[in-house]
Structure formats: C-alpha cells, structure tokens
Amino acid sequence: MIYPWSLPGAVFHLGIDSLSAAFLFLVLVVGFCAGIYGEGYLSASSNHIAKAPARFFFAALIVSMAFLVCARNAVLFLVCWEIMALSAFGLVSLEHQKEDVRKAGKLYLLCTHTGSLCLLTGFAFLWKNAGSFEFGALLAAKPLSMFERVSVFWLFLIGFGMKAGFWPLHIWLQEAHPAAPSHASAAMSGIMIEMGLYGLLRFFSILGPVSISTSVFLMVLGLFTALFGIAFAAMQRDFKRLLAYSSIENIGIILAAAGLGCYGLARGDFSLSLLGFSAAILHTLNHGFFKSLMFLSAGAVYLATGTRDIESCGGLQKIMPRVAALTAVGSLAICGLPPLNGFTGEWLLYCGFLQMDYRREIIFFSLAAAMLSLIGGFAVITFTKFYGLIFLGKPHSKSAQKAKEPSSLMLIPMGILAALCLLIGLFPGWALKAAFFAASNISHPTPLLFSADLQKWSALLDLVGLMGALLWILIAIFWAIKKTSLKKRPTEAGATWACGFTSPTPRMQYTGSSYSMPATRTFDGFLIQKESRAPNGYWPKSSSFHSRVPDPALETWLPKLLSPFEGLIAWPKKIQRGKLQFYLLYAAAFLIAILIWKL
Amino acid sequence: MQAFSQILLVLIALFSFYALGNSSLIGCIRIIALQGMCLGILPLLIDRQGFGIQILLIASGMFILKGFLIPRVLSYAIREVKIRREMEPLIGYNSSLLIGAFLIGISFLLAARLPLPDNIRTSLLVPVSLSVLMMGMLMMIVRVKAVTQVIGYLMFENGIYLFGLAISYQAPWLIEMGVLLDVFVAVFVMGIVINHIARAFDSINTENLTNLGD
C-alpha cells in the first residue's frame, strides 16, 4: 500500500514480508489478549488508574506497533516508533500521583529519546547515501563507506538497543515495567521491547552482513545481557521487577541468536545464519507469549493482594487455583524447559552453538553454550522462586489471605496465551516454519538450501514436540498411579514446607532471599547491599536484616559517566533564573544585538 | 512649529530620563502623565497638512487617556498598596541614569543608520522614539516593583507610538484608537492585578512571583 504523504521524504508505504508477518502476528495476538485483560484489570482496579487515558495509550501503542512492523519507509517507521515510545510513556506514568512512577516515566522518556536521536541520525546517514527514505531504495543503494557503516551500525545498535534493553542500555526497563499497569507492562515487555529487535533485524537485512568480530561481539553482548538480567532477576523481591529483569535475559538470548545469525552470514554459511536468525525470531515469538502471560498473571496477583512484594504473597495456589495453573505454564515456558515453547527457541540456539564447523572458534562456542545453560539454570531458580513464594506455602500477609480469583475477562486472555505456549511446545513445526521464512529475509539463502534446512530442522523439532507430548503422557500416568494407589491408604495433608513442625507459622517458611541465596551468594558484597543488626547477647532485644540490589548500571556507572557534564548543564541553569527581569534583559539584549548587527 | 516640536521631543526624552533616576513612585507617575500629554500634543505640531478633525480626535483621546486616566489608575493602585518608593532596584539610580545616557547615544547612532523613507517629519523623531523605547525596556528590567514595571511598559509603548508617528503620515485612526484602548485596558488590568499581588504576598515585588514556579 502506497499513499503520498506531505512530509518531506515520506511516503505512506506499507508492506508485509515474512519478517513483518511474524512480528505482526505477535503484536496482534498479544495486543488482543492484553487489551481484553486490560478491560478486566481496569474495571477491577476501580479508581487507581485513570481509565480513558489507559485505553487511549494502550490502543495507540498497539496500533503504532502494528504499523511499525509494516512500514516500508524510514520516515513512517520513525513516526510510528515515536508514537509507540510516547504512548508507552503515557502508560508508564498513568499512576503519576506516585513519586517513583514519575521518576520511572522521566527515566523512560530520557532513554527512549536518546534512542530515537540515534535512530534519526542513523537514518540520516542512510538517506545521504541512498537519497531516499524508502526501504527498497536503501537496500538497493551503493554500499556505505567504512566510516559510515561503522557509525550507522553503532547508532542503530544504541538506538534499537535502548528500546530492547541490551546491557547497559536496559536502565529504564526495570523501572518502567513495574510502574505501568500490568496489561501495559505485558504489551511493553512482550512486544514493545521486541520492536527494538525487529528494528535491528530489519536493519541487518538492509545493511547486509557485518564482520566476524562484530557478530562475535553481538553474541558476547547478548549472552552477557542474558546472564546479567537473570542474575538480577533471581535477586529481586518485587515480582514485576523480577519479570522485567527476566525480559532483559530473554532479549539477551535473542540478541545472541541474532549474533549467531550474523556470524553465519559473515562466514558465508547460510544454513548457520538461517538457524541463528530463526532461533532469534522463534524465541522472540515465544518470549512475547510467555512473558505477557507472566505479566498478566503478575497483574492478577497484584490486584488480588495489593502488593508487588514476593515476600508478602504466598499460598495463593489454594486461593486462586486458575491463575496458579496458568502461571505455572508460563513459569515452565520461561525457564526454557522441554514440554513448553520456551525450549524450542533455546534448543535451536544450542544446536547452532554446537554445530562446531569452525574449529578456530570451538572454545568460544562451547563456552557460549555453557553460558546459555548457566542462564537456563538461573532462570529455573528465579521462576521456582517466583512461583513457589507467590503460590505455594501459606500466605505471608493478611492481604494475601483475602485474595480472590480474578474475573473471567482477565482469565480468558491468559488462557489463550497459555494455550499458545503449550501448542508451540507440542507442535513447534508451524512456528519454526514461520521463523524460517522470516529469517530467510535476512540471510537470503538459496531456495534449495532453505527447503532442505527447513525440512531437517522441522523434523528434529517435531521430534522434540513428540518427546514433550510423551512427557505429558508420562506425567499423566504417574499422577493416575499416585491417585489410585493412595485411594486405599489414609492420607494427611500438612502445611507446605512445614518440615515436621507440629504447628508451623508462615514466618517459618522460606523467604525469597533465602531461597535464591545459594545461587546468588557469588554476588554478595559487590552487587547485594546488606544491612543487618544481628541478635546480641542472651536476651537479644531486636535484630533486623535488610538487603537490596541496586542496579549498578543505573545507580553507580551512569552517574559517574554523566558527572563531567554536570558543569556543562549548570551554565544554562544560571541563565534560567525564573525572574521576569532577566528574561526581559535577554530579549532586550537580543534585540539590540540584532539591530547593531544588521545596521 | 518645527522648532516647537523639537523641543517637545527633547522634553519627552528627558522625562523618560528623569523617570529612570526617580525613586518616588508618585513622581514617576506624574512624569509619565506629562510625557503622555506631550505625546498627545505632538501630532498637532508635526502635521504639515494642518488640523484635521481626525487628528484632533486622536490627539485629544491620547491627551486624556495618557495624561489623566492611566495616571489616575496607577495612583489608585499605589494608594491601595501603600507603596511610595521603589527601594531596592536591581541597578542603582545613578547607574541606571548612566546606562540611560548610553542608550540615548546608541539610539542616535542606530537612527542614523536605520534605512528610513526620506520624508521623515523631523530629524529628532526616530532617535527619540528609540531612546524612549529602550529606556522603557531598561526600566522594566532593572526595577522590581510591579508598578514601576507598568510604568516602564507605558514608556515602552510611548516609544512605539512615536516610532509609528515617524513613519506613517496619517495612521488610520481606527487603529490608533484601538491601540489606545488596548493600552488603557492593559494598565487597568495591571492596576487590579497589582492589588491582588499585594494582597497575596504582602508586597508587590515581582521576585515573589518566582516562588510560584517549581
């Protein structure tokens, strides 16, 4: 679809190829589910959130993203990008009465505009070369010079990375996602940050192959982002913040997969690049589904208990069984465990890392695969903590006892997303096919190679799905055996984690910090700040323990990086006195200067 | 006639100069009233075509409004807020006089280089208008009280009027009347606003208004 547009250089040019289609599918499905859920959420949260702006900004966000992935003109792309960024800002600062929400909104706005600035400059470079803003013209233009290529690459990496949340550009993510209402954070985390990846993939398809060292850099950056994200997720107490850090992890995995794709392109190995890019796209799809599911269930828990603190929930499985079941599906998927969809993308990535056709980089690739499994292990700890502390055991607080199941308006969209997670886990073939077609847009393989690879990998993945199905059947059989064999014997149900105590209290249960302590002990001292007053003497009076995990990128490094600029900012502050007289003086000085200059 | 109008123009500039160095608010208001009266007479003196009914109307309107009504409103305002003197100007009176003298010099310099139509009525008109304009601006900048700022604004407006007089032979009188009405309403509103500021802050220092921001 092409319509003329009065903006300079702009054409209202929309088109769909398989890459757009994959992302459009994600945007529409998640947008639909989160939107329906949002209605239930808004009506249940009575007065906390202004309803009309919430609806407006949410709709604007989804529509702008749908247009974004179909845009075939850089100006249209940037306009959609900006609408998306601004409507997300509106969603983040919906509850602007709270101080921390305002702070998060400000931080987000700063970050997103820094990113937009980079994108604008990057597209300006491309335009200078091609003389047009059309994607087709950019693709057909003569190759860029070395300097232009490098600067465009970095500009786009920073611009899109700011949105996607690559380390250390993720700083806004863990602040903004908890601040937004849950359906908005589902849309933001499930799709909006993936628009950064879409942009990066689209840019790879336009710019062509990058060098080997750059692609290795992308893989390292991705793996580091993932490890960093999941390690921080394991240490969080606020469950929405935990999910936000887990988004950083998944983005890191996707970036690593895209880096693998770039590596294949740089080596001229099309099947490797096809594998890498399709792993990236498949994991993007999967992440969109399970992360938005997790955010929606986090929202249901937040509505029911009124807290985002993991330590004050607990025991919700008995109170809200449906939400618990759906969250269990999401948690399993997000860990990347076999019978669900999270596994399929990661499995492709493992296969890519372990193909070992390149003897020189064999150490790097085996380390990368090891790193990926370390990340998976952390994910399991994080999400057993998430699920265990929120849904198992006994309620830690009064508000958790009074929780109740949310309305079906909220449950049905969650059900749809969970069903998608299950379906892709059992029948990964069709998702793989979509991902392969999308990836072929970037790596441009020969049709013969493409169909051979597709056949090979879909056969393998179907086997994975089959094994998943077998696993489900096994679980069902065991469950049935347990049921029938316990029928005859008397059973007694004790409190969870009672550990043999006759009358356990909720205070004796695991806390989040104690659960994740063995895994996160490595980070003691330099990432975790502890403050404790140990019990003292035979009759200790009071003791306390408090630990917090500040984000080093946001709270330590960024201020250090920015401190040289403070002097620079202080100067215009001096001019801006806020006094009428000074402004008049400036106006007069300007007028006189103009008069003297011109005469 | 020509000589008389020159004297009048010099007087107008001197009035502005005097207002710059005067700390008494009532004195300032009287000066601005005198300046307004001079401005009212001026068109009659420089019009070569003689007295038309139109020019008479404008002149008399100007005379009454700037010479009597506006000073009346302003003195009402200061009587209400009980302020007699501008005590703490940002720049002292002597220094403002010096700057004012400097501005007069600059305006003569600028006027000499300004590309103007040839048939200007009197040679002094443009430099005087520029200097009155600049001194009004200076007054707005260096004074703190709201009343003196209004006076500065009036002076500024007088400068604009003079400049307009210099270029247009017969300004459409409807527009002139409109401008006069505008100024009157502005001063009227400011007089009321000054009272409100005084009531809210116990002072009419505009610096207090800064506190209304963040």
Notable characteristics:
heterodimer; A: 599 residues; mainly alpha; 2 domains; two-stranded antiparallel sheet; two-stranded antiparallel ribbon; 4 strands; 3% strand; globular; B: 214 residues
Descriptive overview:
The complex is a heterodimer of chains A (599) and B (214). Chain A is mainly α. Chain A folds into 2 domains: 2-473, no CATH class; 555-598, no CATH class. Chain A has helices at 18-44, 51-70, 74-92, 99-130, 135-140, 146-164, 173-179, 182-207, 212-235, 239-267, 270-305, 316-319, 321-335, 341-353, 362-391, 398-401, 408-426, 428-443, 447-488, 512-520, 552-562, 566-575, 580-598, and strands spanning 2-4, 11-13, 529-533, 544-548. In chain A, the strands form 2 sheets. Chain A has a two-stranded antiparallel sheet with strand order 1-2. Chain A has a two-stranded antiparallel sheet with strand order 3-4. In chain A, α7 runs antiparallel to α8 (182-207) and α7 (173-179) packs across α10 (239-267). The radius of gyration of chain A is 26 Å and the shape is globular. Chain A starts with a strand and ends with a helix. The mean pLDDT of chain A is 82. Chain B is mainly alpha-helical and 214 residues long. Chain B has one domain. In chain B, 77% of the residues lie in helices and 0% in strands. Chain B is built from 8 helices and no strands. Chain B has helices at 2-20, 25-46, 53-81, 93-113, 125-142, 146-167, 173-201, 207-210. The longest helix of chain B has 29 residues, at 53-81. The mean pLDDT of chain B is 79. The chains are: A mainly alpha (599), B mainly alpha (214).
